[in-house]
Amino acid sequence: MQEKYDVTGMSCAACSARVEKSVAALPGVRQVSVNLLKNSMTVDYDEQALTGGQIVAAVVKAGYGASPQNSKAAAAPSAAPGGGAQAEYAAMRRRLIWSFVFAVPLFYLSMGHMMGWPLPGCFLGMENAMIYALTQLLLLVPLVFINSKYYRVGFKTLLHGSPNMDSLIALGSGSALVYGVYALYKIAFGFGHDDMAMVHQFTHDLYFESAGTILALITLGKFLEARAKGKTSDAINRLLKLAPKTATVLRDGVETVIPAEDVKKGDVLIVKSGEAAPVDGVVLEGTGSLDESAITGESLPVDRQAGDKVIGATVNKSGWFKMEATQVGDETALAQIIRLVDEATSSKAPIAKLADRVAGVFVPAVIAIAVVSAAVWLLVGATFEFALTVGVSVLVVSCPCALGLATPTAIMVGTGRGAANGILIKSAEALETAHSVQAVVLDKTGTITQGRPVVTDVICREGVSEERLLQIAASLEKLSEHPLAGAVVEEARRREIPLLPTEDFDQIPGQGVRGTVDGSACLAGNRRMMDAFSVPAAELDADRLAAEGKTALYFAVDGRLAGMIAAADVVKPTSRQAVQELREMGIEVVMLTGDHRGTAEAIQKQVGADRVVAEVLPQDKEQEIHRLQNSGKKVAMVGDGINDAPALARADVGIAIGAGTDVAVESADIVLMKNDLLDVVGAIQLSRATICNIKENLFWAFFYNVIGIPIAAGCWYAAFGLKMNPMIAALAMSFSSVFVVSNALRLRFFKPKHRTGASSPQQREPQAQPEPAPEVSQEKQEKQESRQEENSMKRTLSVEGMMCQNCVRHVKNALEGVSGVEAVSVSLENKTAAVTAAESVTDEALKAAVTDAGYTVTAVAHEG
Question: Catalytic: which of 356, 443, 595, 640?
Answer without folding.
Answer: 443
